Amino acid sequence: MANLEARGGPGTFGMAGLQWAREMFCAWYPDQPEITDLIVQHDPHTYPRVAVRKQDVLDVFLRFGNRQALRAVRTMPEKDGVLDNRKIDAVLVRVHRDGKILISQV
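^ thats the sequence. predicted structure below, dont judge the formating
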C-alpha cells in the first residue's frame, strides 16, 4: 500500500490521487473494451484473423478519453496503418509472460 500511496494511489489526496483514480476507473468502465479486444479481430463467420487499422483502435480510445490506452496503442507496430499481426502476437506473449512473473512474486 505504501508503494501506491507514493504514486498517488489510494489513501492520498490532491491531483496525483485524482489522476490515479481516473486511470484506474477508466480501465474498469464496463462499456469500454480492453486493448486486446480491439487489436486482435476475427471474421465472425469464418473466424480467420482480419487486418486491424491502428487508427480505428485509436479512435475508440479517443472517444473514451483513455490516454493510457492511447499511449499503449500508439507504440504498437504497424505497416501502412495496419497493425502487424506477428509483432502484436509477440507483444501479447511478452505481456502474458510478464504478468505471470509478477503474479508469482506476490
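Residues 31-104 form one domain.
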